[in-house]
Design brief:
By secondary structure, the protein is an alpha/beta fold. It has 16 helices and 14 strands. It is globular.
Length: about 400
């Protein structure tokens, strides 16, 4: 079964065609800058295509992608008739969608009904689903909810300490994100170690441009750093993370900001990008720090502290820790950051192997202490393909 995996962002589409259950990626690529005259289209298969052209919306983008699949069929051996189903990443499933679902009218209505919980994400997922419905009307589709993994979090953990009636009426609570990535991380860890991890106390650190920490207890999500939105939690590339909400109100009043302007500052003009003054690439910040840049060093220290604090907090909440798993661009590739994060955690039984940490390659164990520390590659697209295959086969 060839699964067409789609991840529609605000101005982008990432996609793969994966042969299941063989897990072979046949086609992959993406479209960026949707809505602009210089949208970038990439198509990677037996030959690679890269070009720019105007792409006004997601439907045009998916239409271009499907036409390219048809055009390249003589090279790839895969045409539109060879696509058996589509699987979509849907960021926000609310409090109800804890498992992936075959998309029908009711599921689509539900995703639309909670769009205001993820205004930057769910409307674009809906556009992608509707575009596929229009262009390939007979193709079955599946929604894989990014926060579905976190619906197991206990009520006393997902509840905020604000006005009870308002929070219940508006659905204000911790939802958590990166759930698909965490599912992948645990699957990869199980394969790497060759054992069932359902009884283990695990801290997962998904550290990319978007960052989330997760505690998994007895095979289920127990705590997560991201909350009502992805803004809560760790310092991210452009998001501020945890801070005093009264400081936000103070900033709004003093700077005479609209809520839209304040939201833009918190989500797009903060994080390690603005704290350093260098940009969102942690590698560039590290290079500046080595040259003595004070703000770059401050940024690395602040980011590492927040990472470290969440590991300790989750170990305390679970009553211990058996595994610490790193993934994401920073988690997989930045050995200095992993070392800095773990350097004071020996009291938990965490000790890194310097050689494995700094000089090892790929997925591996990087620890010598009681707690196993792993580096794995989270593959969200494969999880989406698996769920789609399982539901439809």
């Amino acid at each position: 079964m060839n699964i067409f995996v789609l991840n529609c962002g605000s101005s982008s589409i990432k996609y793969q065609v994966i042969d299941m259950p063989g897990e072979k990626v046949l086609i992959h690529g993406g479209i960026s800058r949707i809505g602009y005259d210089d949208a970038k289209f990439t198509f990677n298969a037996r030959r690679d295509l890269v070009f720019t052209q105007p792409i006004a919306n997601h439907e045009q983008g998916i239409d271009l992608l499907l036409k390219t699949i048809k055009q390249e069929e003589p090279s790839t051996g895969i045409g539109l008739s060879g696509i058996d189903a589509a699987g979509h990443r849907v960021v926000q499933g609310g409090s109800e969608m804890n498992v992936s679902r075959i998309i029908d009218g009711n599921i689509l209505d539900y995703i639309e009904s909670i769009a205001d919980l993820a205004p930057l994400h769910n409307p674009n997922h809906i556009k992608g689903i509707r575009a596929v419905q229009k262009l390939l009307p007979d193709l079955p589709q599946v929604a894989v909810f990014d926060n579905g993994f976190h619906t197991s979090i206990p009520e006393h953990i997902y509840t905020y300490g604000i006005n009870y009636e308002i929070s219940r009426r508006l659905g204000i609570r911790k939802y958590g994100f990166h759930g698909i990535a965490f599912r992948s991380m645990i699957l990869r860890a199980q394969m790497l170690l060759g054992q069932d991890l359902s009884s283990k106390k695990i801290v997962n650190m998904m550290l990319g441009s978007g960052t989330t920490a997760n505690a998994t207890l007895n095979g289920k999500s127990f705590e997560v750093s991201t909350g009502f939105t992805p803004q809560e939690g760790l310092i991210q590339s452009t998001r501020a993370g945890d801070m005093d909400t009264a400081a936000v109100l103070f900033m709004i009043n003093k700077e005479n900001l609209t809520t839209t302007e304040a939201d833009d500052i918190l989500n797009k003009q903060s994080g390690w990008s603005d704290l350093s003054g260098i940009g969102p690439d942690m590698y560039d910040i590290k290079q500046a720090a080595k040259k003595g840049d004070r703000r770059a060093r401050l940024t690395i220290d602040a980011v590492a502290h927040r990472f470290r604090k969440y590991i300790g907090a989750y170990a305390a909440a679970m009553g211990g820790i058996d595994l610490l798993i790193f993934s994401g661009g920073v988690g997989e590739n930045d050995s200095d950051m992993r070392e800095k994060v773990c350097e004071t955690l020996s009291f938990l039984g965490i000790a890194l192997d310097p050689v494995a940490n700094h000089f090892g390659k790929g997925e591996r164990i990087i620890s010598t202490g009681r707690v196993i520390v792993l580096v794995v590659n989270a593959n969200e697209e494969l999880v989406i393909a698996k769920d789609t295959y399982d539901l439809l086969s």
